[in-house]
Write a structure and sequence with these properties.
Radius of gyration: 18 Å
Helix content: 40-55%
Shape: globular
Structural class: alpha/beta
Strand content: 5-15%
Largest sheet: 6 strands, parallel
Length: 301
């Protein structure tokens, strides 16, 4: 089974014109295409995602939502209503979709909304610190406790983000304290810290067995420098083991950089790609990264 742990209905660039306009002027290395905002027709987008998944051979996609309302201003829908789109899709089509609940923990009702989402079938929590909070802030603790009680993972964005969002708060160093204080809660460092904080994310994960790494946004590194991409895989393999890695795409934000089907094939071809650079990656390790580990984290085995 192939599980995309990091999928969005719409990218932040489609949801917020301010981010799209600023990022379009920034030097982001072509990582994101900054097209006009999408018409947010849920049925149409769900159909597009299913077709993309079928072409790529992805079995399940986890729908993640970043709550940027306290930083960028509230959108047309409440955060509860936006999350409801994902839970409704997952309930109506569990063969394709898994819902994660996304919320800014500073919202007074965050824990209760998360509890309601879990009762409705959500399989995880998504936090986006770039909205202006630190993942080790005490306000996050009730969410982590609830995630541990329910046996669902907490996926946290790590690494820089386009203005007007904040990068400093998204350092993986701020996952160290939660991982230590909540050993029964599994955390996923989305993007594994990206290029600037990858070594930090990996070193923390060496000492925190409940911290996992997800490697979306690495598409750009693969295209630029395959040898360096494999070098990082080598560091992960001999640092924490590839069974602590989960596959994610971060589509649609990076779909124009590397389509989902090509990104999946890259992972399926990792034994051959890695061998070109002197690293052995087994088919069993690939199977765990592509879906086995994620299924265990979400209790889908």
């Amino acid at each position: 089974m192939i599980i995309d742990l990091h999928r969005h209905l719409w990218s932040i660039f489609e949801r917020y014109s301010a981010v799209r306009e600023i990022a379009a002027r920034a030097s982001t290395g072509g990582m994101h295409q900054h097209s006009a905002a999408a018409v947010q027709d849920v049925a149409q987008r769900a159909a597009e995602i299913r077709a993309e998944m079928d072409e790529a051979g992805v079995d399940r996609s986890c729908l993640l939502l970043g709550d940027y309302g306290l930083r960028l201003g509230e959108g047309d829908h409440s955060i509860q209503a936006e999350n409801q789109l994902a839970t409704d899709l997952a309930a109506g089509d569990p063969d394709h979709f898994i819902a994660f609940f996304g919320v800014d923990p500073r919202r007074p009702e965050a824990t209760e909304l998360f509890r309601d989402a879990l009762d409705a079938g959500a399989k995880g929590l998504k936090l986006h610190p770039c909205a202006g909070f630190y993942p080790n802030d005490p306000v996050c603790r009730p969410l982590y406790e609830l995630a541990g009680e329910r046996g669902v993972p907490v996926a946290v964005h790590t690494g820089p983000m386009a203005s007007p969002l904040i990068s400093t708060t998204a350092s993986p160093i701020y996952l160290d304290e939660p991982a230590a204080d909540f050993p029964d809660t599994n955390f996923v460092a989305l993007h594994a810290g990206q290029r600037c904080w990858f070594s930090l994310a990996l070193d923390i994960a060496r000492w925190k067995p409940n911290l996992y790494l997800e490697l979306s946004l690495w598409q750009g590194l693969l295209l630029e420098d395959e040898a360096r991409f494999v070098h990082h895989l080598r560091e992960i393999k001999y640092g924490i083991g590839l069974d602590r890695v989960v596959f994610g795409s971060d589509c649609p934000g990076v779909s124009d950089v590397m389509p989902l089907d090509r990104w999946v094939r890259t992972w399926q071809d990792l034994p051959e790609i890695a061998a070109r650079h002197g690293l052995q990656v087994t088919d069993d390790e690939v199977a765990l990264m592509l879906g086995g580990t994620a299924a265990r984290l979400m209790g889908l085995e």
